[in-house]
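Shipment paperwork, digital attachment
Item: protein structure file
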Amino acid sequence: MTKAETQGVTFPLPAQYRQQDYDLANVTPDQVRSILRNVRNGRLEDQDRLFRLMLDTWPRLRKNLGEVAGAVSRLPLEIIAPIAEGQEEATPKASAIADVVRRAFNSYAPKAGAWELSGPDSMKAGIAAYLKGTVVLEIVWQIANGIASPRCYSPVPAKYLSFPQQGNEVDRLMVAPQGVPTSTLEDFPPDRFLVFVWSNFDAHPIHAALLRPLAKEWLAYIYGKGWAMQYAQLFGIPWRTIKTDGSDEANAEADAFLANIGSSGWARHTTSTEFQIHDGVKGDAAQLPQMVIAHEADRQCDILLLGQTLTTDVGDSGSRALGDVHMAVRADVLQAVASWVAGVITDQLIPAIVRFNFGSVPTEEMPYCEIKVPEARDEKAIAERVKLLKEIGLDIPKKWAHETLGVPIPEPGDELLESKPEETPPPPLNVPPQDDEGDQEDDDEEGLRPTDEMAIAASKALEMRRLAPPGQRTMGGLGMARARDIANGVPLSVETVRSMVAYFDKVEAVRASWPEGAKEWQAWNGYGGDAGAKWARETLERIQ
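Attachment content:
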């Protein structure tokens, strides 16, 4: 790395850049329309000022950008050595190159107080292109710990960026080292900049900014809030009136009274005046047309930047299922942004680090970057599923179970947690022993005792009901009690046997269409299933 390569192109920015810049204020809809149209000349300054004003004055917009940028920048960034086709692992050289890149990513040293960004902060800054369309960061290089690495990143303001204004030039984003008005445009020097360009279908980068379609919503938010404030000033405070006898003296007294009570909170009047206070306009402020406009703007901002919100279509009630959909859509948005950032790092930053440290390297040895959003897992549901599969007798490989549950297979000598001892099931509710005179009654009761096959079916039905969502459960209090009696082998009454036969006869013709675990399946097996149907009919025929 030469000395010239450690010097900046636009870095460090002079203080006059900040002093000579200005912010937009009191923007009208016509001015917004003009700014969005005139950006076609290639200069990005005015559009960037508009975007800056939108972020400064729209809390929901800044919150949504912070949410996306913060979530993606916290994800683990992996530098992976490529594995050649037909090989099981990377070559030693490819692994060594990847190690140097990882070291470079841990060598940031921005100066305190300077406008210099570290790795995570540079990622947040680059993600702003998700809204603005383009963001450029200059890489400030250093030699540290025996390798060339980025010391920090310097944001490049829109004043130094532009697309060509000459009609015969190749259209591309370029840099003006002294600013667009005072210096000519140049191509970005190799390995000196990170150029974040958000792609929006086939739109030109100038028109790909998501803030462009949000500009109208921003105007609605700003004007809606302003109108609401004016409404509150006019109708939100109590009204005060005074009746007088019409004389000049009474009118002067009334004027002084109203002025004093408005500023000092007290006043004095005579019997010639009658003072009244009227409440301000009451009602839900959220239903005012002015606030509806502002809330709708916030809603559109959420939909465009986050995909959707839990209350986008269903109001504030929500549900767990809709919440799951909301999180899945949001995860898709975050993964799209994360993959885009990983692509910029893979295509621009990693090759620059490799070239400064190793020179030209074959493509098959160039590391690449991955940033993945972790998949949401319902650990309890997964554990219950594995338990149920085991209980119904399905052969489950131990390795698969460990991987599915995320529990490592113990190594020899590992200290293991003690397993919870199996609870002994409660003994069957048997009828108290009878004397010799009750032998016949005992025989009758044994004849009405459910079989083991019925007990197994009822136990499975109770377990499936326990695991099922609330809306997919059957069996009320009486049905649950009957299923528990059958599962525990409790003798049944003759009336119960008759009701079982009546139930089986009624539904047997349609039971083949029930999927396992369905409500009807739970009820059928709660009565002992197929074994229960056979037993009930035979028992009823015998006792009659």
